[in-house]
Structure formats: structure tokens, C-alpha cells
Amino acid sequence: MAFFFVYPPIYDAICRLFKRERRTVLVPWEDVVAVCGFNPSLGPGAITGFGWNFALLPPDPERPGYTLPGAGIMVGVGGLPGALAQWEYIRRFMEEGAEAITPSAKEWGLEWYDAYVAREKAACERTNDKARWRRFRRKRLWEQARFAHWYTEYRMKHVLPKAVPKGWLAEWSKPLPKAQWAKPSAAVTELSEQLRAAYQRGEKFTEMGDIEKRFGVEVAPPAQSAYRSLPFAANLY
What we know:
There is one protein chain. By secondary structure, the chain is of the alpha+beta class. The chain contains eight helices and five strands. It has helices spanning 2-17, 80-96, 110-127, 130-142, 145-159, 168-172, 186-200, 211-215; strands spanning 23-26, 33-43, 46-57, 73-77, 228-231. The strands form two sheets. The protein has a three-stranded antiparallel beta sheet with strand order 2-3-4, with helices on one face. The protein has a two-stranded antiparallel sheet with strand order 1-5. β2 and β3 (46-57) form a beta hairpin. α3 runs antiparallel to α4 (130-142). It starts with a helix and ends in a 6-residue tail after the last strand.
């Protein structure tokens, strides 16, 4: 537990020692690259497991085909459908706003987990399925699920806020004035409208395939231009 409290100041001290400067890179939304990678785990003489990663990466305008070193977000996913769903969740939030997505991003923390277990228990009691309830509890115990949700909540509330300068995240998260909003290209706007109509028809994004070919819309590659960047915090140290 002591590590949770000493990590942020130790990390800051190392940054000061090596004079590392952290910067926030402002990337046009249409330039962001989404990638899903399949990563087999290799052991001595055999493949021991499989994993999938989903990443959002800003391209390097100075080197076409490459991404900015050290930049981007990567998370583990259950497979290609999970990566597609993750991407579409983020895309709709970015292009249509918070009202276009479901509240599933709140599925963390002890309050959510306890409510989830209570719903499962009530369902098993209604059907008198004691075997299902035992399997459920055994699986959650094996996964250390309650500890995982507690630890996630602890990090979100106590560890992560100490990893950035005080007040920086709130300042950075302020919405831009509407006059500064970037306007998407006509092709991207048309694709968004086509997808919105497809959802209203009950179609699923994970089953659509190549949406540019599906809807006959060709999106031009983004222009290669230098990205503006800002210091991570004006008074970091």
C-alpha cells in the first residue's frame, strides 16, 4: 500500500532529475489512427496465450506512416469485435456528444460491482438456480473481481489525481469555444449520417465491415501538417 502513496512524488523527482518535459499534443480528430493488434504470448517452444490490444495513435506529420513516439492510448480488449465496439463508442462520443453513448463507461467501482452481484443473485433466486449462483461466485472469486473494482476506484479517486499537477486536468478539460471547433470533412460527415441511419434500422457496427465501401463514401487521407503542442503544465515543478 505504501507504493500507492510514494509513486507520484518519486515519478516527479525522476522527471526533474532527467529534465523530462511532458507536452500535450493537439491532434485533429480526423488524423487520429485506430489500431487493433493481435499479440500471442510466447513461451519456451510454444504459444501460451493470446491477447488483443486496441490503440488510438496520433500520426507523426513529419514521418508519414509513423506515429508520434510516446503518444497514444492502448487498452486490452477481448478480440476484434471488442476493438470495433471500443472504437465506435469513442467515435460517437467525439462526433455526436455524450448523449449518443450508453453509460457503460461507469461500470467500475464498488457501488456498481455490488449492484451487479445483487442483480445476478436475484436472478438466480427467481429461477432457483443454485448451481448458476455457485459458478458465478466461484468465477468472481477466482478473478478477484471485487478487489479489482475497489482498486480501480481507489486509483481513480486517490492515485491518478496526484499524477498530474493540481488543477491541470480541470483546466485542460474545459470545452473549447464553438468558434474554435474543427469542422469535419464532408466525407466524414456523410459517413456519420449513414451510420446514424444504420443504427436506427437496428444494424450493428461490428457486422458492417468496411463502412467506406458499404456506403460508397471515400475519405481522403489527412493533410500532413505540424501539430501544435502545449506544455503539460506551465508550473509543473
